[in-house]
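Hi D.,

Good news: the full-assembly prediction came through. Inputs first.
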Amino acid sequence: MIKNELSMRQTAVIMCVLGAASKLMLWPTSLASACGNALWLPPLVDTAVQTAAVWAVALIGSKTGKTLFELFSQSFTKPVACAIYALLSLFFVLSAVVPMSEQQLMVHEVFYDTIPSIWVFLPFFFFSVYAGSKGLTNAGRTAECCLPLFIVSMLFLLSLAVTECDFNLLLPVLDSPAGDIAKACFGGMHRSINGVYMAVFAGNFRYKRGDAAKISAACATGGIIVSAVCALFYAQYGELALTQYFAVAKLAVFSPVVALVGRLDLIAVYVLDAAILFSIVLNIQAAVYCMYCVTGREWHPLYSLLCNGALFAVTLLFNNSFALVQRAAESYLSVAAAAFTFALPALAWTAYAVAKAGNGRGRTAAAERGGK
Amino acid sequence: MEQPASERALCDADLKTRLKHIKEILTSPDILTFEFSSPHGKKFALVYLDGITDKQLLGELVIKPLGRVKGDAPPGAVRSLLASPEVKESKDISVAVESVLAGDAALFVEGQQTFYVLGLKLPPGRAVAEPPTQVAIKGPREGFTEDIKVNLGLVRKRIKSPALQVKMLSSGTRSHTAVALCYIRGVCRQGVAERVEEEILSQKIDLVPDSSYISSLISKRPRSLFKRCGSCEKPDIFCAKICEGRVGIIVDGSPIALTAPYMIAEDFQSAEDYYITSYRATVIRTLRLLAVLVGVLLPALYISAQLYKIELIPLKLLFKIAGSVSGIPFSPSVEMFFTLFIVEVLNEASVRMPKYVGMALSVVGALVLGDTAVKAGIISTPAVIITAFSAICLYTVPDLVETTATLRLLYLLVAGAVGMYGVAVLSAFLLCYLSGEQSYGVPLLAPFAPLVVSDLKDGISKSNLYSMRRRPRSLGSPDKVRFKSDKK
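Then the structure:
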C-alpha cells in the first residue's frame, strides 16, 4: 500500500529545502536580467505571498484535520472536488516543465565539458517514474534526506562565495523600476507554489498547536535562502550576472580555494542537484496524489508513467526552445499559479464555512428532532 | 492395511522388536544401538548417533547407574536412577528418531512403553574465541561459535534477567536446524518477535546451513541489494541490541547471530564505539561514513571527470594524470573496470588460498600485476591508486561490503555511460528507494529519514552514556528508559 502520511517536520522541510532547491538553477540569472541589483526582492515577495497561502491552508488543515479533497467533497460535492483536483494535477505536471527544462540545461552546462546527447537526460525520467509513484510519505522522507545535503552544499558554496563578493553592487537598494520588479515577481509565481503544495499536504499529517506557524516559517526560510543566493550572485558578478547561467555553479568560481584545488565547488553542486531532482519530482508526486484522489485507485506507477510521458514529450518537442518554454511559463503558468495560490485557500475557507454551517444546521435539526 | 512402523513400535514393549522398528526408520550405519542388562536381569537398549553423542557421559550418567535396577523394578525406579540432567519421557517413536538425529540418546527399557530421551549431545565444535571480523582493541573479546548452546550461554552470561525470552524453533525440513529467538519481554516492541517467528516457521526449506539463510527467509524483499537483518559475531553487541528492543536470532551451526529490526546506521557503529570516548567514537563513525562514500564513489567520480568534466580535476593533478594515462590502450572506464577486476580477483584468491600461499599471492598481485602492468603501460598509476584506495575504504564498514562493492560497480557503469549526472540520479534513486524500505516496521534510513532527533545521539555522532538515557525511539520499545541516573 502506498502511504501518504507526513509529519509536520517533513512538511516543513519540503517547504524549506525542496521549495528553495528548484529555484536555484536559472531564476537568479533571469531575475538579474529582469530587475538588476534588486534581484533579491522578487523571491522575497513571492515567498511572502506563498507563506501567507501556506499559513491559510495549514490553518484550515489544523481546524478540520481533513485533506482539502475531503473538505471540498463534503462541502461542494465530490464531482466538484474531483474537478479541482484534476486541474491541480494538470497544474503540477505543467509546473514541472520549467524546472525540468532548467535541469536539462544545467546538466548540459554544468555536468559536461562537451555537448552531450539529449539521451544523457534520460535517467531523470527513470528516476522520476519511480519516485513519482512512491507517495507522499516517501516524498517527506527523501526531503529529510535532502536536508543535510542541502545545508552542507549550500554552506560550502556560500562560504566560498562570500569572500569574493562586493556588496556595494547591491546598492542603491531598489534602484530598478518598480514595474520591472513587479513583473519579475509575477513572472516568478510559477516557481513559488508552496501554497499549492500545502493544499496537497494538508490533512495528511497530524496537527499540533503551532504547526501552521512552523510550516509557514520554514517556507519563509526557503525564500530567504533563495534571496540570499541571488544577492550573493549579484554581489559577485554585478551587471555580468545576467550572462552567468546557473548561479550555484558560478558562485564559488573565484574563490582562492577553487583556484588551489580545482572545481571542488562542483561536487557541492552535484550534491545539491540531488535535492533539485527531488524538488522537481515533488511536482510529479503531487500530481500523482491528486490523480489518486480523483480516481480513488492506487495506480501510482501508471499515473507517474503518464505524467512523465507528458514531460518526456515536452522534452523532445522543446529540446532547443527553452526560451519559449520560459516565456510561456512566465506569461501563462504564472497566472495559473497565482490563481491556485489565491483560490485554493479561499475555496478551502469557504468549504470550511459551508461545512461548519452544515454541521450547525445538522445539530439544530437533530436538537429539534430530539425536542419533538 | 499395514500398520506404520512408528505405531507398531509404540504399541510394542518388547525391546528387540522396538529396536528392529527403530532400525527400519534409522537405517544409517552411524546410528548405533547398545543393548545391556543390569546384574538383576533388567534389559535396556540405547540408540544414539556416533560422533555427536557423548559416550563417556552416557557410560557415567546412564549405563553405570542403571546397573542397580532390579528385574521387577517399576518404571519410576529407572527414571530416578538416571543421572543425566536432561531427561525427557515419551511414547512417540518420532520423538526418539528426531532426538537421536539431533545427537541425543534414546533409552528403551524392557517391558516399558515409555522411553527416555537423554540430552547428552556433544557435537564437535571450537572454543569461544575472538571473532575474526569484529576484532576489538578495547572491550570484550569473546565471539559466538557454531554451537547454539554455547552461544545462548554467552548471552545468558550477560543478561541475567527473567524477562529474557529464548524461544527455540526449528528450521529446515531436512536439517531441523535449531534456531533460538531471543528478546526481552517488555523491551521488544509487541508483535516483532511473533512476526519473526512466523516468518521462520512459514518457510519450508530443506537445509539451513547458516544464519544468512534465515536472514533471507525473514526478509520481505530477499532479492534486495540491501539486507533487512543486522548481523554480529560478538555476544556483547548482540546483548546490547536485544536490550535496545530488537529480536536476536541465533542459528545452530553459525557463529553469526542476526538482529531485527535493522537500520543501516547500525553498520557504521562498532562495539568499540561504546567503550571509548564519545568524541573519538563520533570522529571514527564520521570517518567510516566518509570512507564508504569515497570507496563507492571515487572510481565513478574519477572516470566521470576524465570522460566528461575535466574541470573537476585540479590543474596540476590533471597534468600528472595526463602524463600517466597517455599511451594507455583502454578508455578510462574500461581501464577502471579492468583494475577493479584484478583487485576483486586478488581479494577473492587471497581469502580462499592457504595463508602462506595467500601472502605470496599478495606480493605477486601487488608487484607483478600492479607495478608491471603500470610499467608496461596497460593500466595507469591513478587507476591503480584509486581502485586500491576504494577497496580499502569499503572495508572500514565490513558488514556492508557486499552491498557497497556492488554499488561501486553500478556507479562505475553509470558514470562510464552517462557521467556525473548519472551518478547524481543513481544516488537520488537509492535515497528514494531506501527511504521507502523497512525492516519489521522500522525504516532502514532511521533515524535520518524519518528524522528522529533523539536517536541522532547514537546515529553517526555518538553522545555520552548520560545523554542516551532512553532506548532508540525508532525501535518503538514499550520500555523507553534504559538508564536512570541523578547525574546530569
